[in-house]
From TrEMBL:
<feature type="signal peptide">
    <location>
        <begin position="1"/>
        <end position="19"/>
    </location>
</feature>
<dbReference type="GO" id="GO:1990281">
    <property type="term" value="C:efflux pump complex"/>
</dbReference>
<feature type="domain" description="CzcB-like barrel-sandwich hybrid">
    <location>
        <begin position="62"/>
        <end position="147"/>
    </location>
</feature>
<dbReference type="Pfam" id="PF25973">
    <property type="entry name" value="BSH_CzcB"/>
</dbReference>
<dbReference type="InterPro" id="IPR011053">
    <property type="entry name" value="Single_hybrid_motif"/>
</dbReference>
<dbReference type="InterPro" id="IPR058647">
    <property type="entry name" value="BSH_CzcB-like"/>
</dbReference>
<dbReference type="GO" id="GO:0015562">
    <property type="term" value="F:efflux transmembrane transporter activity"/>
</dbReference>
<protein>
    <submittedName>
        <fullName>Efflux RND transporter periplasmic adaptor subunit</fullName>
    </submittedName>
</protein>
<keyword id="KW-0732">Signal</keyword>
Amino acid sequence: MKNYIVLLCLLLALGACHSNDNAPANHVRPRTAVQITQIGIGTICDDLVLSGTSVYLKRNLVTSSIAAFITNVYVKLGDHVRKGQPLYLLESKERKALGNDITKVDPSLKSFGLITLTAPASGIITTFDKQQTGEYVLEGTQLCTIAASNDLAFQVNVPYEYADLVKPGKKCLITLPDKTVYKATITTPLATMNVTEQTQVLLARPDQDLFLPENLLAKVAFDRSEPGNQQVLPKTCVVSDELLKDFWVMKLVNDSTAVKVPVKTGNKNNTSIEILSPTFQKGDKILITGNYGLADTALVTVTQ
């Protein structure tokens, strides 16, 4: 009898252990903590930036109208001059021979033999051939050169692939090394191309008269953004494969489920990116954090 009781206890213990092994386990699927944002509307600027070099297209030569002595020089190399501003005072050899006694003979001859040469146009003195007072010059001698300020332009080397974008009449922005920015317009292109680089030279004329040194390097920017407003998201919303070929976002379809939505991207900057397709609804919720590495359909927990 005693052995029977011991055997019965062993059977009950084994049955209890077997029953616990078959008990269902409660598995909880993990959820990823995420933050969300909504689609925005706007345009991201996409500028084509090329280099430009300042050049004066028109130069005015100042020459001596008679054979004379240079009595006075009122300007120097690099000066900005205005049309009609005095540049040189010339004294004819006859006046030089008579000296100042000519006014004693006849006061009306005070200006006899004196010629003031003035600037034929506004601009910058780029060459200064004669600057010594007392020097004798022949008729027609070149004294200086004035680069006309209203004919300042920037030569822009444009790759031919951008010929449809950079063409006559196109507006652009010129940024100088000191960060000042001026509006300009592209004019008629030159007829030659750089054989090696396959670039064409076009001229960007500032919309206002500028006094700048020649051969100044500047940045010339052209806006190639698509017209109209586009869907815009923060860059962290968009995920891509390793080859940067396919792009997608994770869209929240209910309180706890996010699904993968392939997208086509457009222009971008340091913080934002355009979404060209598909078209999202105004209230759609897009994951902005926690979206990297999620499966096509994933359980998530939205945090603030």
